[in-house]
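Summary for the steering committee. One of the milestones for this cycle was to obtain a three-dimensional model of the protein with iron/sulfur cluster bound, which we needed before selecting residues for the alanine scan. The sequence and ligand used are listed below.
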Amino acid sequence: MPEHTAEPLLHVCQRCGACCRWEGDVCLTEEDITAIAAYLHLTEEDFINTYCRLQRNRRGLSLIDAEDGACIMLQENACRIQPVKPQQCRDFPRRWNFPGWEQRCPGAGRKEDAQP
Ligand code: SF4
Ligand code: SF4
């Protein structure tokens, strides 16, 4: 499970797409499913059948992986559902992260006014 942290941290996303290639689940809330299905002009049933699988703990749904292991929604290094991307994606790394994330995220330690 991701660790939650209350500490403010320095981070400015560099849009490198690395976190969209990491192993693990891209967990979906019910609200995520509703919003993403609508954004893709799919019924929720069709969205689930096409793009979802069970989370590894079998407690909910995750987006599936592409053949190369990246998230199925990563397209030309950008998220094709950016306006409605899952809460888990929006919350990293400020609301959850994991030990060593700073070594895997080029945005770690950057200040808002720093140039990428
Ligand atoms: S790994 Fe970090 S810098 Fe790269 S896209 Fe993800 S959050 Fe942004
Ligand atoms: S849904 Fe978008 S932001 Fe989230 S892991 Fe997939 S490609 Fe990345």
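Key point for the committee: Residues 13-19, 105-107 surround iron/sulfur cluster (ligand 1) (CB under 6 Å).
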